[in-house]
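Database export, one record per block. Field names are fixed; values are copied verbatim from the stored entry.
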Amino acid sequence: MPRRGPGGGGRSARCPVWVRVVKALLDSPFVMLFTVVALGSLVGAVRVRGVALGAAGVFFVALALGVAVTLGGWEWSLPHELTELGLVLFVYAVGLQAGPRFMDTLRTRGGAFLLVGAGATAVGALATILLARALGLSAYLAAGLYCGATTCTPALAAVLDAIRRVSPEDMNIASVGYGAAYPFSVAAVVLVVQLLPRLLRVRASEAAAVFRNAEAARWPPLEECAFRITNRNCAGRTIDELQALHVTRAVIARVKHEGKIGPARPETTLHLGDVVLAVGTPEELAKFEALLGDVVVESMYDPTGNVTSEQLVVSRRDVLGKSLRQIGVWERFGVVVSRVRRDSVEFTPRGDLRLEPGDVLRVVGQRQDIAALAAALGREERRLYETSLVPFAAGIALGAAVGLIPLHLPGGLEVQLGLAGGAFLVALWLGHWGNTGPVRMYVPHAVKQFARELGLIIFLAGAGAGAGQRFVPVLRDAGPQILIAGALVTLVTVAAAALVMFLLLRWNVLYGAGSLCACMTNPPGLAAASNLADCDAAAVGFASVYPMVLIVKIVYAPLIFLILRMLG
């Protein structure tokens, strides 16, 4: 689109060279995008008393440039589709990262998420209604302001749909409110999450250690223990028969019978006086002691070297998603899997355990049998770093389709989750279940991290450019009271969420920081929270709260419009 600047369109041929250069740059979205990204990254790296903007620096550089260009009589923006692409990539990568833990976290903390997600955002919605009545803001302006103050674009889409049904010519008024409140909300959340450790007097590194310890407590480290068979009820039974009793999740790895040591195969029969080596958590091993007999201190390693233990890394694509029983680890190869390490978590396996890329299996057996199993599981770890674009792209496409599904609300309203909301929910599902039908979904950690960072900076550049373009007209048309109202809604919502999370629920500061960003549907804030410590607590908190908050805001925002419209 041609830009009009100094010199006017009819005299463009006589414009100074610098004017034509500027126009050419503004007309090139890619040049401007990466210029903003580079400058924003430099600004974001600057620390003032230990506080830095981080990735949000890209947003503020784009915002400042948008304001400057507008004041100079120029026009500049980044394509809306580019901004949406960045947002979708970001939330999709976050969903994939958090998916493996999301369902477990939801089961254990679902009530707390409801309190944080629905309660804190309800306080912000109520504050919006009260401020609109006190300051004389229209229903159109107030509903958009709520969406901007809580940085929720899908909610704005729901509001615009509600307005379109009753007064299509007033839809732009809601966008004005959104644009006025959005910049302060982004900046406030970014700064608040970085100040949280200081405000709560907790070191981020200590909070990260507490989070890791809590995770470790949920997955206790495995130990080895030798037992002598003294229980006559166990004598004459096979290992498969013992495991079928489901007394313990510990696994028998080796058996010593008449001085000879061998792998504990399912068909191996136990006798009185046999010594078995079991692997499991202390709690599960204690159950084995009650079942089998006395704990003994005895070497269980084969002096001949025929029976040994090795670690194997799963990398072949044709075994991914298959269970240990389907592969025939015991039946075909005569090898026992005593433990599995997956994503830094170690556990004892069952026969129905389905293999994931990068799983590390501790196996016991004869050398030639282990070698055969290693060939079946894969020897090339480089395959773990290869990404198939088919499931990756298919997941995003599925998410976009889910985001377009209409949701019918009371009052005849019809809303959608939007591209980002749909992509996030699908990514959570894929991250948890790990597949799309027959196609195995595996994205290396480095790829997810790159998609997350790239998507974030593209989104921030586009959002900042759009907000900068509307910033001056908003101030001129609506006055400063709309900025004050937006700031108050942001601060009230943040304060309500923080009080619930840190005073009532006593959440970990890093986990709470990510959850706070989710309450504000604020990706730049998550970037800042993730930089507080080398820990994924913030991402897990964000992903846990975000789905509920997103749905709640899509409902609240149109309700604000309807309530204020009814009140007149």
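Remark 1: Residues 222-280+316-379 form a domain with the Alpha-Beta Plaits fold (CATH 3.30.70.1450).
Remark 2: The chain is about 60% helix and 10% strand.
End of record.
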